[in-house]
Design goal:
Layout lengths: L1 H7 L4 H13 L9 H10 L3 H9 L10 H12 L3 H14 L4 H13 L3 H15 L9 H13 L4 H15 L4 H13 L3 H14 L4 H11 L4 H14 L4 H13 L3 H14 L4 H13 L3 H11 L7 H13 L3 H14 L4 H13 L3 H14 L4 H13 L3 E5 L2 E5 L1 H26 L7 E6 L2 H9 L9 E3 L3 E5 L9 H17 L6 H15 L9 H8 L9 H6 L4 H22 L1 H12 L4 H8 L3 H17 L13 H5 L2 H10 L4 H13 L3 H14 L9 H11 L3 H14 L4 H13 L3 H12 L6 H13 L3 H12 L6 H11 L5 H14 L4 H13 L14 H8 L1
Helix pairs in contact: 1-2, 3-4, 3-5, 4-5, 5-6, 5-7, 6-7, 7-8, 7-9, 9-10, 9-11, 10-11, 11-12, 11-13, 12-13, 13-14, 14-15, 15-16, 15-17, 16-17, 17-18, 17-19, 19-20, 19-21, 20-21, 21-22, 22-23, 24-26, 26-27, 27-30, 28-33, 30-31, 31-32, 35-36, 36-37, 37-38, 38-39, 39-40, 40-41, 41-42, ...
Length: 870
């Protein structure tokens, strides 16, 4: 092991020497006084005054060990007594001069005393003492301190983890500082799963340590806010004054746009430590949310008062502004952070993301690569660099200010349709909301869902998201990446975000942005957008509506995926309510006020009514919408639902007592269909359609009844049912597919075209449908549409390219003989005995024998050309 570490460290001899000496000399520990546990308990429960009293009597006594000095310094730091902490550390070092952990605390304390030179000297002392060959007195906490110091020097994290942090745990399995340090290192590298795992281990050893529960909460911050809240509750139960937990909870409330709660939490922080930089940084963010630039600068100045070159202050402010989609301001703060510390990687990678979201791709990708080259363990930088390499293969399609980037195959399949829909959205929505876009709008489609997640969120995940808009940049899952849904509806939704974010200068709450986009989907096409369904009905009637003033929080920490979908629906319902009762102009005036920095509640009440009245009337509006959904349906379900559902006889009794039960009728129909009782199944299915004709969810009565008719050979009835479903659903692929087959059998080519277009609006990457669309258009004499369909198919690895090229040649015979000849020659290269292609080529030659011969690609079809000359 020693030889391995020695060889590994030769690249960094100074750092290598430190760790090598540790491995050779070994480590001894001190015996701690029994009272230290009692003092630590006071610290962990937030009784900082009592903790200071206990440490005052002990930390200057050499016999008591360095832990008293460490605990006293930590307590002074937590309470903002930075100068006193620095002095206390110096005093403790008189008795414990070789304590690396005290020296590391001294480094931190002097930074907060605005003494960077003294802080740097403390690090230098760590390096000097650690390189003394006879050093054999370090305990596990000193190893952790050394690891932290070496990380600041740029030592490879893997070596620090393996040779210092893990070694500390080997020496002392109950080394609290090691668990915290390993967890923090994982957080710093965006490896949140590893961080959570480490903090859980720490909690096993220290179940009453709030720092461990806080670390676990931090690991959940980007992925699971519910679990984060649970861990924060555990931390604050142990210590109601736990500053890191209060700060993280305040940050969460800012994300939820609950600014009053955030202020209350920050007041609790400053009651413990009035100088806490993070608290003042978050207050700066709140000032921005209130459009108070002067107060924002004052709060920033206060945050930097103790440590004027603290890059974390501007990093926090910028990150929160970017989370509010104010990327220009966010990027400016990251640049401020990097001005005082050019090597502060969190700001650098955040700036890279901000630049990419502002459409400044060249700068953004370059910066991400720079971070990766500096820190190969930075998960976010690694993901972004890999993604950048992958995206370099994308095809770009542009029309004016509209730029689309897609996988090459997908670009051929539906890229032009994307551009055309964007042009329509720009024309319609910009006019409706009274804006003109003066910057490029970039749309990026990702066939790999994880690529989409990395581009959008920085890390894998993001399941369930179809697209995200950052202002002038849209990222979206392609139909290949997610469960098929109507990509046209999604694109319209995301472009509406472009319009409203530009109109408000990115100063709008999430709920309103999402609500308008969902509402505008339905305005564009009545079958797009979110519609009320049985689950939404239940949630409304059972009191699960979120107050308008708190709606953004419903997006950030939904209890279930259904609650997230309900948040979209409720937001669109609020927008519909505003437009219906106060008009479109009121909605646009609200957006204009937001652009001027007005608070959302004041903006709404200025152009509608008081928030109290609004929320009451909206609740009534939503309740009526719920009650009007299939009013004759019996929505009751039995308590023993599984027992009844699994017993046809008991189900029959229930159905007799509840003849209009939506649930029982559906289950009863399924039983009959499973037993091939097709004729009998018609009755419950037709009754469902009579009671609730709008339902298009999974296993809806339309699809089930179409299966019944198909099994009975009743094609006309099957067709009628499926046509009804296709007219009210935007993503009924099974219905579209079957209607295409029926229309082909009936030679109803226009219906083939209609249903092919509906199908391709959901999933445009299936060869069969493109071929059927081209063939139907050809039979209708719509040559240009047929040509476009066949040309798309040529790029999609179609099984019979000879037939496609022949068809294109035939369609272009009169319009463009030269191009037609090239297609025919390509067809013959694929199938040399293709008789119809030979006949077509002869006609083309005869028709053009008096004209200049067409230019033929000699490389593609030399044998065919030579054979034809012979």
């Amino acid at each position: 092991m020693i030889a391995f570490v020695k060889n590994t460290f030769l690249r960094n001899s100074a750092v290598s020497t430190l760790i090598l000496i540790i491995l050779i000399t070994g480590t001894n520990g001190f015996l701690y006084a029994a009272e230290i546990d009692d003092a630590r308990k006071e610290f962990n429960t937030g009784n900082y005054s009592k903790c200071l009293d206990l440490t005052q009597r002990k930390f200057m006594d050499r016999r008591e060990g360095q832990q008293w000095g460490i605990l006293r310094a930590e307590t002074l730091m937590v309470t903002g007594k930075y100068e006193e902490a620095a002095k206390s550390i110096n005093d403790a070092l008189l008795y414990h001069p070789l304590s690396l952990y005290l020296l590391k605390l001294g480094h931190e304390a002097n930074l907060y005393c605005n003494k960077p030179a003294v802080a740097a000297e403390k690090l230098s002392e760590i390096y000097r003492y650690a390189t003394r060959s006879e050093m054999a007195i370090w305990d596990s906490t000193d190893l952790v301190a050394l690891g932290k110091a070496l990380l600041l020097q740029g030592t490879e994290p893997k070596l620090v983890l393996g040779e210092l942090y893990n070694r500390a745990l080997q020496l002392d399995p109950d080394c609290r500082e090691a668990y915290l340090a390993i967890g923090q290192l994982a957080l710093d590298k965006q490896d949140y799963e590893l961080a959570a795992e480490q903090y859980r281990k720490g909690i096993e050893h220290f179940p009453e340590d709030p720092d461990m529960h806080f670390g676990l909460a931090k690991a959940f911050y980007n992925s699971d806010r519910q679990s984060m809240i649970e861990s924060l509750n555990a931390a604050l139960y142990l210590n109601e004054n736990h500053v890191p937990s209060l700060l993280l909870l305040a940050e969460h409330q800012i994300d939820c746009e609950d600014y009053d709660s955030a202020r209350s939490l920050l007041n609790r922080v400053t009651s413990v430590n009035s100088r806490n930089p993070e608290a003042w940084a978050f207050r700066c963010v709140l000032s921005y949310m209130s459009n108070d630039a002067k107060s924002a600068e004052q709060n920033r100045a206060t945050a930097l008062k103790s440590w004027s070159t603290n890059p974390n202050v501007d990093y926090i402010i910028g990150s929160k502004l970017s989370l509010k989609y104010r990327f220009t301001e966010g990027a400016a703060y990251q640049q401020r952070a990097l001005k005082v510390d050019p090597e502060f990687l969190p700001a650098k990678i955040q700036l890279a993301q901000d630049l990419l979201r502002l459409g400044r791709e060249e700068e953004g990708w370059k910066l991400a690569e720079e971070v990766y080259n500096q820190d190969r363990y930075n998960v976010l930088a690694y993901n972004m660099v890999n993604l950048g390499d992958h995206m370099s293969t994308f095809k770009t399609i542009q029309s004016g200010r509209l730029i689309v980037r897609m996988d090459k195959t997908e670009a051929q399949a539906y890229g032009q349709e994307v551009i055309e829909l964007l042009k329509q959205a720009e024309a319609d929505l910009c006019k409706k909301y009274g804006i003109t876009l003066d910057q490029n709008v970039i749309v990026e489609y990702f066939p790999d869902q994880q690529d989409f997640a990395v581009r959008t969120f920085g890390v894998p995940g993001g399941d369930g998201f179809l697209g995200v808009c950052f202002g002038n940049v849209i990222t979206a899952n392609s139909p290949k990446a997610e469960r098929p849904s109507n990509w046209k509806s999604t694109l319209w939704h995301e472009f509406c975000h472009v319009v409203t974010l530009n109109k408000t200068k990115n100063k709008m709450p999430r709920w309103l942005s999402e609500g308008i986009s969902v509402f505008e989907e339905s305005q564009r096409n009545p079958i797009w957008g979110h519609k009320i369904n049985p689950e939404y009905r239940r949630m409304i009637l059972e009191g699960e509506l979120t107050p308008i003033s708190e709606l953004s929080s419903a997006f950030l920490s939904p209890a279930t995926p259904m609650h997230l979908q309900f948040a979209y629906y409720e937001s669109s319902l609020v927008v519909e309510f505003i437009v219906k009762n106060y008009g479109y102009e009121s909605l646009k005036e609200i957006l204009s006020d937001l652009a001027d920095g007005e608070d959302i509640q004041r903006a709404i009440t200025r152009h509608t009514d008081s928030m109290e009245k609004m929320e009451k009337e909206f609740a009534d509006f939503a309740k009526k919408r719920a009650e009007d959904l299939a009013p004759d349906v019996d929505w009751e379900q039995p308590e023993e639902i599984q027992l009844i559902a699994n017993d046809p006889e008991i189900l029959s009794v229930w159905l007799q007592e509840h003849p209009n039960s939506f649930w029982a009728l559906t289950v009863h129909a399924a039983y009959l269909m499973n037993d091939n009782n097709w004729e009998q199944a018609k009755e419950p299915l037709n009754k469902i359609l009579q009671l609730y004709p709008e339902f298009t969810g999974e296993d809806n009565a339309y699809l089930l009844l179409s299966i019944v008719h198909r099994n009975l050979g009743e094609t006309e009835q099957e067709k009628q049912i499926l046509e009804k479903l296709a007219s009210i659903s935007s993503d009924a692929l099974n219905a579209y597919d079957r209607l295409i087959d029926i229309a082909i059998e009936e030679e109803n080519w226009q219906e083939v075209v209609n249903n092919c277009e509906k199908y391709l609006a959901v999933y445009p990457l299936i060869n069969k449908v493109h071929w059927e669309l081209g063939s139907a258009n050809e039979k209708l004499g719509q040559d240009q549409e047929a040509i476009e369909a066949y040309q798309r198919l040529l790029h999609m690895d179609y099984a019979d390219p000879a037939d496609l090229n022949f068809r294109l040649g035939r369609l272009l015979e009169d319009k463009d003989p030269a191009t037609a000849k090239r297609y025919v020659l390509t067809a013959l290269a694929e199938a040399p005995r293709f008789r119809e292609a030979h006949s077509l080529l002869l006609r083309l030659v005869e028709e053009n024998q008096q004209q200049e011969p067409a230019q033929i690609n000699q490389n593609e079809t030399p044998n065919i050309q030579e054979n034809y000359r012979r």
